[in-house]
């Protein structure tokens, strides 16, 4: 007993402020299988939870979003831990600023929200590669999410860093975490490797102790639960609004004959893809099914309660290859910008039928401000700025190398070779094995020729003289996050052919654009003159810059805003060095990008950098971007074929 008390005292001394031993009985959380409910502090407990991903919300707004979730009547939040967000390179860890998950957990605890932690290692989440780091693919034959020894070694190292950080935040240690998910929807993966699940189970218990409640989540059918569950891991299910609730929970009962009923992902909306309509799910359907779930005494997590934003390059993709846009609004109760919606209040009303709602006002929607148009000027093409963007000597290779082989995991790589002979007549440049992952912008001697795109455009015609540069700028548009194809290599993953000739002798330039933009790009001499000589709808990828100031004399500025791209085509944008993400208004459905106020400054000029990959408006109309006070994320302008549905998560789901 003395030893136990001493251990408790030492543990309390090591815990972060606000956590640790509390006066009174020891806090406990567990499962009463005989009575089919959770036990919190030895009393029956049912949770109503909502998903929020700290990686998709600026730290500046974590408290605002959590308070709104609390005031909706939620007991808990659910969040994923994206491995690649914290271990960008092997052995290099980042838990600071927007990646400070421990601060996020402390905030949840202070606000009075419990936490359901979905620790991975795989998370799906419509996040790049489902949260798995791309550097795992350096062993090209690796079998992800399996007992592959190299994969397990990397998982063991990562969990040896993450889980000890999480242990002080377990509920029994004074923290908010009541449950920890092991893997995610594993029954939907082809490997069906029970040894892998056993390894994870042992690993999690080793770092978190034997008292922690470990659980799994799978689609509500026996076929998914067959490979996704393991004895000793509590099996939960997920299903959408409009489902037969009783039948869905009977699927859970096939794996868990007793214990609490749990829907770990009750979908409040759905995800989007470029070129497809924005997904909208009716509030009435969600409220009706939520009421049915709660009437059965079941536990539920609303996925998403707040979607947020895929800043920078973090969006995922599904197969047949289609990447997700920057907005992860999800048609959730709280919008991408944390705005209160009609869906928020409708679901709050349903929750209020089953438990007392918190007293006090709901935090208001944050104000938005339209700063207006900002003039942009061309700085130079990627080729003209290449010495800044890739200061090291190019990597030379007979055949193209992938991003992973270059240790360039995100963004862009420029592949350059020379034309082996004169091509005075249009000659087909082909990617015969669909080897462009994911989109390539082709120029000859600085003149844009066209675009090759994965799964869509395999050939373009080019002309040029022998010895001139053929530049192929390849964009990684997001790795597949779901299914067996998440070992998603990027770049030129197979050869290109020109006519009957296989192109060889490449100079390859990994582009460190984010670092260079953060330091400030510099112009390289005269403005490019290639645009005027190129009559096509394409121009060589180029950078544009602009500056604007926050109006003085108006209180409470800066405020959140949205950025619009009139006349622009596709690219990437940074404000004050912060990578806001991708824009692609000509394909949609997203037209505006959310700009959180915390990246803006009122004490100096705000710097805007745009990388336009195809065609800017600057040669034919006003060269400007525009800040507006309302989002536009549902204006699909270029619809893809509706005959081919995307396989996402565990469902073939059309927007409702």
Describe, in plain words, how this protein is organized in 3D.
This protein has 656 residues and is α+β, with helices and mostly antiparallel strands. 19% of the residues lie in helices and 25% in strands. The chain has 12 helices and 34 strands. The strands form 8 sheets. An 8-stranded parallel β-barrel has the order 4-5-6-7-8-9-10-11, surrounded by 5 helices. Strands 16-27-17-23-20-21 form a 6-stranded antiparallel sheet, with no helix packed on it. Strand 30 (571-575) and strand 31 form a beta hairpin. The longest helix is centred in the first third of the chain and has 18 residues, at 149-166. It is globular and about 80 Å long. The termini are far apart.
SSE topology sketch:
Layout: H1 2-14, E1 29-32, E2 37-40, E3 43-45, E4 48-51, H2 62-71, E5 76-80, H3 83-86, H4 101-111, E6 114-118, H5 149-166, E7 177-181, H6 194-208, E8 213-219, H7 222-228, E9 234-239, H8 245-255, E10 262-267, H9 283-295, E11 299-303, E12 317-318, E13 322-323, H10 342-352, E14 372-375, E15 377-381, H11 386-389, E16 395-397, E17 412-418, E18 423-430, E19 436-437, E20 439-444, E21 447-453, E22 459-464, E23 469-475, E24 491-492, E25 497-498, E26 501-502, E27 506-510, H12 513-519, E28 542-548, E29 561-564, E30 571-575, E31 578-583, E32 593-595, E33 606-612, E34 624-628
Parallel strand pairs: 4-5, 4-11, 5-6, 6-7, 7-8, 8-9, 9-10, 10-11
Antiparallel strand pairs: 1-2, 2-3, 12-13, 14-34, 15-28, 16-27, 17-23, 17-27, 18-22, 18-25, 19-24, 20-21, 20-23, 25-26, 28-33, 29-32, 29-34, 30-31, 30-33
Helix pairs in contact: 2-4, 5-6, 9-10
């Amino acid at each position: 007993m003395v030893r136990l008390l001493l251990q408790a005292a030492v543990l309390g001394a090591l815990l972060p402020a606000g956590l640790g031993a509390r006066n009174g009985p020891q806090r406990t959380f567990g499962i009463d299988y005989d009575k089919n409910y959770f036990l919190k502090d030895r009393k029956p407990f049912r949770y109503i939870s909502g998903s929020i991903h700290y990686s998709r919300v600026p730290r500046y707004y974590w408290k605002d979003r959590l308070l709104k979730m609390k005031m909706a009547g939620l007991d808990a939040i659910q969040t994923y831990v994206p491995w690649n967000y914290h271990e960008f390179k092997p052995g290099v860890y980042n838990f600071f600023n927007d990646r400070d998950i421990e601060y996020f957990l402390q905030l949840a605890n202070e606000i009075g929200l419990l936490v359901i932690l979905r620790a991975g290692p795989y998370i799906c989440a419509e996040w790049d590669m489902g949260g798995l780091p791309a550097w795992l693919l350096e062993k090209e034959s690796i079998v992800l999410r399996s007992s592959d020894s190299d994969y397990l070694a990397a998982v063991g190292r990562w969990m040896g860093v993450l889980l000890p950080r999480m242990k002080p935040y377990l509920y029994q240690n004074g923290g908010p975490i009541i449950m920890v998910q092991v893997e995610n929807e594993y029954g939907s993966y082809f490997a069906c490797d029970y040894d892998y699940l056993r390894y994870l189970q042992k690993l999690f218990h080793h770092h978190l102790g034997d008292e922690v409640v470990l659980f799994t989540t799978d689609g509500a059918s026996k076929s998914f639960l067959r490979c996704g569950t393991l004895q000793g891991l509590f099996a939960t299910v997920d299903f959408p609004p409009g489902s037969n609730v009783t039948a869905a929970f009977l699927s859970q009962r096939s794996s868990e004959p007793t214990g609490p009923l749990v829907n770990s992902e009750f979908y409040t909306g759905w995800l989007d893809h470029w070129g497809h309509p924005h997904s909208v799910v009716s509030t009435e359907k969600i409220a009706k099914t939520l009421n049915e779930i709660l009437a059965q005494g079941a536990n539920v997590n609303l996925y998403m309660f707040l979607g947020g934003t895929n800043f920078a390059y973090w969006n995922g993709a599904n197969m047949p290859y289609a990447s997700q846009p920057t907005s992860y609004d999800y048609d959730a109760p709280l919008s991408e910008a944390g705005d209160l919606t009609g869906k928020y209040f409708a679901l709050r009303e349903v929750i209020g039928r089953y438990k007392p709602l918190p007293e006090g006002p709901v935090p208001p929607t944050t104000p938005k401000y339209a700063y207006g148009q900002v003039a942009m000027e061309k700085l130079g093409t990627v080729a003209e700025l290449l010495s800044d963007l890739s200061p090291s000597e190019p990597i030379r290779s007979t055949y193209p190398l992938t991003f992973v082989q270059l240790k360039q995991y995100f963004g862009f790589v420029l592949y350059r070779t020379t034309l082996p002979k004169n091509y005075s007549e249009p000659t087909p440049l082909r990617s015969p094995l669909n080897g462009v992952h994911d989109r390539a912008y082709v120029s000859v001697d600085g003149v844009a020729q066209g675009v090759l795109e994965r799964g869509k455009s395999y050939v373009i015609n080019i002309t040029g003289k022998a010895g001139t540069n053929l530049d192929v700028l390849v964009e990684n548009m997001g790795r597949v996050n779901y299914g067996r194809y998440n070992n998603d290599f990027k770049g030129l993953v197979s050869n290109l052919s020109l006519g009957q000739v296989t192109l060889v002798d490449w100079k390859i330039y990994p582009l460190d654009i984010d670092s260079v933009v953060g330091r400030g790009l510099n112009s390289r001499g005269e403005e490019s003159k290639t645009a005027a000589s190129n009559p096509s709808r394409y121009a060589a990828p180029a950078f544009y810059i602009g500056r604007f100031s926050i109006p003085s004399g108006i209180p409470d500025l800066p405020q959140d805003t949205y950025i619009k791209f009139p006349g622009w085509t596709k690219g990437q944008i940074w404000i004050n060095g912060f990578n806001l993400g991708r824009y692609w208004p000509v394909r949609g459905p997203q037209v505006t990008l959310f700009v959180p106020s915390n990246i803006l400054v009122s004490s100096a000029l705000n710097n805007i950098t745009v990388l336009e990959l195809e065609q800017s408006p600057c040669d034919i109309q006003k060269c400007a971007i525009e800040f507006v006070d309302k989002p536009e994320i549902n204006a699909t302008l270029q619809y893809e074929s509706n005959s081919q549905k995307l396989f996402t998560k565990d469902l073939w789901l059309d927007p409702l």
